[in-house]
């Protein structure tokens, strides 16, 4: 088949060997080359192959390649492919970007961006190294206990990350998490920053504790509970939340976007008083949503608190407004 015909059909090329892959990198050096590392057993890979076929029609100037990750291990290992689907982007035979996971909108966005930027690599001056280190410092301090993992606590994407989450949850340890698949810069940069080559990585107060093996050792020696902060009991947590600001509103949605009519009305009333207040979106946290009903003995939302004490819901707030009592109550009167 002539090369021109292949371009016209904009087919996705299947690569079966490392030699073929290197050859393609050389031949397609002038254009953007998008490589999908896939596996026949993963249904999300089949979906992403369909997405790629559509993109190939829309972007005939871009070369799209499928490479079965386990069939060509030398290429997969070279580019640290540890899960499928993973997409690598090449220009001038150099890797310029990466996308882990089945994120069709993100893939489309990256293809469009790299296809329209004539030169390679965009990363050079976007985040100087100092900026990356500053960012990593902030991320490692984002919570008292921070887990950098593959996937999320709800959906871990490797066995080691899954085991780590299970151990932390078993010990009721409160932790924040960061999905290293969501950001290639963080994923690579943190290995150098912490001098630790693998994931997951657990940090306490910004200091690296270690990976899964170390956490297992700490668990076995009963030291884990002394190192990592425990999740507060629900009642303690609710007490802290209701006292987070002088005026606290527990609602569906947030200040910017109410997600039910009652919450929208109460926002309008509070905004008209000019009093500062904070909100908590109960739709984001099922434990708080259910627990607060019992804690306050109030079955519905929104709920308004002043200095940690429940004032009531929308009807009571309307009543106080109509009686001219709302402002004094919000300012801490009885």
TrEMBL record:
Write the record's keywords in alphabetical order, separated by commas: Cytoplasm, Iron, Iron-sulfur, Metal-binding, Repeat
Please report the stretch or stretches of sequence annotated as the Thioredoxin domain. 1-116
Instruction: Specify the superkingdom.
Output: Eukaryota
Name where it's found. Cytoplasm, Cytosol; Cytoplasm, Myofibril, Sarcomere, Z line
Q: What is this protein's function per UniProt? A: Together with BOLA2, acts as a cytosolic iron-sulfur (Fe-S) cluster assembly factor that facilitates [2Fe-2S] cluster insertion into a subset of cytosolic proteins. Acts as a critical negative regulator of cardiac hypertrophy and a positive inotropic regulator. Required for hemoglobin maturation. Does not possess any thyoredoxin activity since it lacks the conserved motif that is essential for catalytic activity.
Q: Which Pfam families has this protein been placed in?
A: Glutaredoxin (PF00462), Thioredoxin (PF00085)
- Can you cite a GO biological process for this protein? intracellular iron ion homeostasis
Q: Where is this region: Disordered?
A: 110-129
The record, for PROSITE patterns, names:
GLUTAREDOXIN_2, THIOREDOXIN_2
Q: Which InterPro entries match?
A: Glutaredoxin, GRX_PICOT-like, Monothiol_GRX-rel, Thioredoxin-like_sf, Thioredoxin_domain
What are this entry's molecular-function GO terms? iron-sulfur cluster binding; metal ion binding
Coiled-coil residues are none
Protein name, per record: Glutaredoxin-3
Q: What gene is this protein a product of?
A: LOC112830374
Describe, as the record does, how this protein assembles with itself and its partners.
Homodimer; the homodimer is independent of 2Fe-2S clusters. Heterotrimer; forms a heterotrimeric complex composed by two BOLA2 molecules and one GLRX3 molecule; linked by [2Fe-2S] clusters. Interacts (via N-terminus) with PRKCQ/PKC-theta. Interacts (via C-terminus) with CSRP3. Interacts with CSRP2.
Quote a single Gene Ontology cellular component term. Z disc
Q: Where are the transmembrane segments?
A: none
Q: Which Gene3D superfamilies match?
A: Glutaredoxin
Task: Assign the protein's first listed, main location to one coarse class.
Answer: cytoplasm
